[in-house]
Amino acid sequence: MRSRFGAKIIVVLGVLLVLAGFGGIVAAKSFLNDLTGSIETANVDENGAGRARPMTGAINLLLLGLDTREGWAENTSRADTIMVLHVAASHDEAYLMSIPRDTEVDIPSWTPSAYAGGHDKINAAYYFGSQQGQGWPGGAGLTEKTVEQLTGIVFNGVAVIDFNGFKNVIAALGGVDLCVEQDTWSSHYIDDNGKPVYYSYDGEHQLPNSWIHKKGCRTMAAWEALDYSRQRYGLPNGDYDRQKHQRELIKAMAAKATGIGVLTNPSRLSGLLQAAGASLKLDTGGYDPADFLFNLKLLGAADLITLKTNAGSFNEDPAGGEALSAGTMRMFEAARNDTLGVFLAENPEYLSP
Predict the structure, then answer these.
(1) Is residue 37 classed exposed, middle or buried when 0-12, 13-18 and 19+ CB atoms within 10 A define those classes?
(2) Hey, which of 119, 133, 206, 352 has its CA 20 to 30 A from 257?
(3) What is the CA radius of gyration of the chain?
(4) What is the value of pTM for the model shown?
(5) Domains delineated in the chain
(6) C-alpha angle 239/343/9, rounded to 5°?
């Protein structure tokens, strides 16, 4: 499905919202400097050399969503959401692809954290990279290195946000409209006499008092929208249903941002970025954050196309874990070669409806 690139991409991780509809109001560098002044940036390259890759031709960004809970300290986080954004060299189409968090991969070594490398779920790369005091730059760096090794895609930048920051952005929008397909129990909240109470359970089996997201369409508060989009247990397609619901949340956020005039109102736009606050981290490839976002403004006219990894169903490896299918590897090869349009014409089952 296609939609306006700017509004979608930014809300993918809550921050890139400033990329959307810059139009005339955000063209001023001074306004961008005000918006990006609180964003933390770092060079996540293993050797500290940086990427220094020009924002021309095809552009690839790695987008990571974390469940930090205890802040940005080492030893606490794994990348629960891993997305690859590929923008065609023509800048009229952009493609968003997810890598399932449980995909079994070879994680390469990472010298800064003294990690020797090994075989694990891909979301563990962030954890291993953050050890030895390396924090989020190490986690993001090793995740980037792992995804590059897996897909062959070279990235122009990396954006990281934790789920609390994402929730703050939804709250700043005043909630979003979503439809729940079937009653879905929460692995994060319990029902306390009709009130949702956060409960750090994360188990695979429903509790007697688990909170239930009831079937139907409604305006959801930030906590509910985010929690619903994170559920996978008890759903027919598990993590693939979760990926679908996350795409639906992104669409709902984009629609809300457009509907309330965020993208054409400097004060609303500034408030939305401030809502992300310290939850947003960027590797801008050596660019000043304002320059990085300014360079991406040209993408406002592009359409976003969302793709289904493994054609939307679990792909089991011989050992019983999750693996990327041969078709998915061809999808990433097409992204690397900037031929995703041709790939989708030949493999329409990978297009998200």
Answers:
(1) exposed
(2) 352
(3) 19
(4) 0.80
(5) 5-165+277-350 (3.30.420.590), 174-259 (no CATH)
(6) 55
